[in-house]
Amino acid sequence: MKQLASLLTDDADFVNVGARHWKGRQQIEAEHAARLGQFNESVWSTKAVAVQFLKPDFALVHVDWALRGDKDADGTPRPPRGGVFTWVVVKQGSGWLIRAAQNTNLGPGQQATQPK
Predict the structure, then answer these.
(1) Which of 34, 44, 49, 83, by CA, is between 20 and 30 Å from 63?
(2) Is 2-105 a domain of CATH 3.10.450.50?
(3) Could you please report the per-residue DSSP string of 47-113?
(4) What average pLDDT score do residues 68-77 get?
């Protein structure tokens, strides 16, 4: 979770697929760490990434993803699922960090569509 947190600004905002809004790198790291057991056997796949530079140091990123092998909090296996992440990223120093993230599950049978 430390590596995940290193991708975030100190004052990042993160809205998860359950609409929980976490504020700041510390809370985002702690909330992900508390749920880590649900994802021990999961496999993440990145399906597509689209980047729009709004300014040279500011961009909007959409990431289409798929996940299999995760579980509910009670240990019940979840069916494979997919979704779309929306990130606002900022250039700080020599790298890019996520300032805001919104994660959305796709509904059954839905597929993400990248803008054309």
Answers:
(1) 34
(2) yes
(3) EEEEEEEEETTEEEEEEEEEEES-B-TTSPBPPPEEEEEEEEEEEETTEEEEEEEEEEEPPTT----
(4) 92
